[in-house]
Amino acid sequence: MENNTEFNLKEKIHNWKKALSNNPSVTEADVDELESHLLDLIDDLKAKDLDNEEAFWVAKKRLGSSQEWEEDYQKANNAVLQIKKSLIILAGILIYFLSFYFLKFSSKLLLISLLALKIDSHTSIKIVLSYLTGAHFFYLLFASSIYFREKKTVAFIERIKMKPRDILYLLITTIGFGIIDTCLLPISKKLIRASGPIGNQFYDINFYFNYSFPLIICLSFFFLHMKYFKQTKSTIERGSK
């Protein structure tokens, strides 16, 4: 029997594997194992004179749908999945604090540098304000680009592979940024007092930043999570049909 040239076997297997990968009960190792079983079945069926299309659908039917073995995989992978989820959540928290302290210490460092260069105090404050505002808009642009590109949203989140070593690196970096911010605080206070009226303006900027940045981060993560959940659910439903 001649192969069906209109049927793209590689594409079908890729889509099947992609839908399977979006199942939260199945790990990456499970997906590779199931793909290996599927390919073995297809090879056996093709050896019996079935074409690519017939072999794929018969092999897929024999292997069964995710709903049939989802509970077994969920029990077997429960500990692994919980650790993975915990690492991602912990990484998200650390990335928030890392970004928060980076912007705080870099804004202080920028102000100190501008004042040390004898730049007008009001101009220095405007530059620092523009820097922090630009950081807000950059993050919003980044989060929005992920949200509105539907095909990339799930892929972006699924590509996040966290290991305990990565968490340790994030923790050390975050602590380092926090220490730098603390060390720069007395220096910035001294220069601000010497610069007269800009003190209140700088403190106001820091005060609003302490609330605005966490709010933007929380809202972004919330909407991205809802998008991810909705997209993943629809993908799993299509893949199980």
From TrEMBL:
Residues spanning the membrane: 87-107, 127-148, 168-187, 207-224
Keywords: Membrane, Transmembrane, Transmembrane helix
InterPro entries xref list: Perm_prefix_1
Organism: Sunxiuqinia elliptica
Record-given protein name: Uncharacterized protein
